[in-house]
Specification:
GO terms for molecular function: ATP binding. This protein is an alpha/beta fold. About 55% of the residues lie in helices and about 10% in strands. A five-stranded parallel beta sheet has the order 2-5-6-1-7, sandwiched between helices. Helix 4 runs antiparallel to helix 5, helix 5 runs parallel beside helix 6 and helix 12 crosses helix 13.
């Protein structure tokens, strides 16, 4: 179903993206694939559908919620292993046998868990080595997906990246799939000389916004599939409000096809979600400065000097050029605005007006 709000995993549910899907599938024999793109442009759907089409066994780690502690990180990893065991029942016994040889691993039926105490927890590199050993024993290559890799930060992020670098170098039966929507942060993980993953070659597959005509076609086909009668005028209005971001278009289509109100009512729901995401981003920063800059950008302010004056009005003192520079760089690194200081997502622009 085109309007299914969950990530797609079947080819018939993935709108277009034939070129991206073909490129991903062809790259499954490479050591590492990078799937990049703005938020809600279909990265997870592309990954899951490509893996389904290829019939390649894969382990999927959903890192979107991030990890505040090693306990959080190891719970996310154990969830990914457990889902693999449940999904690939024919490979279960040999996979669990490979994992059982790693210290700190507990297996109860199909549930895999890990100790997260510093002395007992398994090294992440040891877990990836076990996956590689298993893959070699069964004669198959395994894709290991880390969705929103950049969400794991600090010392845990470095530990995870070091494990990935180790796997890249030594595990010849594993393809690493790294995905992220904060593209500046993701690229810094791969291109910063101080990063453990620096210097490793990869194949990049980028998702994109739909063109205006593609977005109209997507909504039209989705409403036909859902048996909902929606006028061409309303479809065009929705595309103008939501741009070509397929996640927002599917969200609108899903709610609208179930009688959940007008375009503006659905957009208000989307703005509430976007505002919550922005608040999470602001929670770890000097919030007042970022709010001021985001509101100014949302109101159409683009000149550096005017942004600086807005901050000085807020703080009632002189603000250095460096402060403005650092705020803008962070917004770009996290793909909230582009190099022209334009919002990458119109819903984020409207949410910023309400900060």
């Amino acid at each position: 179903m085109l309007f299914d709000p969950r990530p797609k995993a079947r080819r018939e549910d993935l709108y277009d993206f034939d070129e991206e899907l073909e490129r991903f599938v062809k790259a499954l024999g490479e050591p590492m694939i990078l799937v990049s793109g703005l938020r809600r442009t279909g990265k997870t759907s592309l990954i899951l559908t490509s893996l389904s089409v290829s019939r390649a066994p894969f382990i999927y780690f959903d890192l979107r919620e991030g990890a505040r502690s090693y306990a959080d990180l190891y719970k996310l990893v154990s969830r990914g292993f457990t889902e693999f065991v449940k999904r690939w029942s024919g490979l279960r016994s040999r996979f669990l046998e490979a994992l059982s040889r790693v210290r700190g691993v507990s297996i109860a039926g199909v549930e895999v868990s890990f100790s997260w105490s510093p002395r007992k927890r398994p090294l992440l590199s040891e877990l990836l080595d076990a996956v590689n050993d298993f893959a070699e024993r069964i004669g198959l290559r395994i894709a290991v997906v880390f969705d929103e890799l950049q969400s794991v930060r600090g010392s845990m992020g470095v530990a995870l990246q070091s494990a990935l670098a180790h796997s890249y170098d030594f595990n010849k039966s594993v393809t690493l799939v790294l995905a992220g929507s904060e593209m500046g942060v993701l690229y810094s993980i791969l291109q910063n000389p101080e990063s453990p993953l620096y210097g490793r070659a990869y194949v990049e597959v980028r998702t994109r916004k739909l063109s205006y005509s593609e977005a109209v076609d997507f909504l039209t086909k989705g409403f036909e599939e859902a048996g909902a009668a929606v006028s061409r005028g309303e479809v065009e209005e929705a595309v103008k409000e939501l741009d070509g971001i397929i996640g927002w278009l599917a969200y609108y289509g899903y709610l609208r096809s179930r009688g959940m109100g007008s375009v503006e009512q659905v957009v208000r729901e989307a703005i509430a979600l976007a505002k919550k995401e922005l608040e999470a981003f602001l929670s770890t920063r000097v919030s007042s400065r970022y709010r001021t800059v985001l509101r100014a950008l949302a109101q159409g302010v683009r000149e550096w000097g005017e942004l600086k004056r807005e901050l000085e009005r807020l703080e009632k003192r002189e603000v250095s050029d460096r402060v403005v520079h650092d705020v803008l760089v962070e917004l770009k690194r996290h793909s909230i605005v582009d190099e022209s200081n334009e919002f990458t997502d119109p819903v984020y622009r409207r949410a910023s007006l309400e900060l």
